[in-house]
Structure formats: C-alpha cells, structure tokens
Design goal:
Elements lengths: L1 H7 L23 H14 L9 H6 L15 E2 L8 H9 L4 E2 L1
Parallel strand pairs: 1-2
C-alpha cells in the first residue's frame, strides 16, 4: 500500500482532517528521518554558518560595526525543502544568533 511505502521513507504525507495513531497528540508531524539525521546534518552545516557574536564584537557594534547585528544578511539562513520543519527547529535551537527562514 502507499502508506507503507511512504512510512518507510520516514515521512507520511497527510491531508487535512486525516488522523494517524502515530502522530503526536498535538497534531505535529514527526519524521523518523529527523531522529536519524539531525545531528549529522548539523555537524556538516555548522562550520559554514556565521559564529555567534563575541563580547568584543558586541562592544565594537557601538563603533558602527554591524557585522553581527540581527539585521545583517549574514545572520539569515534559508532552509529549502523543510518538510515537517523539525530540522529547522533543531538548527535554530543550536544557533539562536541566526534568523532561520
């Protein structure tokens, strides 16, 4: 059946009003793939992300250095292909200095 093949991928597509006993009680989707790969993906992408601001950088912001301000485009990250959204929620929790879209 189609539901068994999609669940083997770790993601079950849902349609409005559809209920599955494996879903979280609050209605959020839960992909098995997230639990398997969120940590390795984070380890792979973290070195390419801007580091958190240091105390020195924050002090330098008073000298018109906005390199780590929250409005700087270097502090924005776009996740493409979000699916359930679980990965981006985890990544954002690991990097609160960045704005994830």
């Amino acid at each position: 059946s189609s539901s068994s093949s999609s669940s083997s991928l770790g993601y079950r597509p849902h349609f409005m009003g559809q209920v599955d006993a494996n879903d979280a009680d609050d209605g959020r989707l839960d992909a098995a793939a997230f639990h398997r790969n969120h940590a390795p993906i984070w380890e792979a992408i973290a070195p390419f992300l801007p580091p958190p601001p240091s105390i020195t950088t924050i002090d330098n912001n008073n000298n018109n250095d906005n390199s780590n301000s929250s409005t700087n485009s270097n502090n924005h990250v776009l996740e493409v292909g979000s699916g359930t959204g679980q990965h981006v929620v985890y990544f954002a929790s690991q990097s609160p200095h960045l704005t994830w879209w």
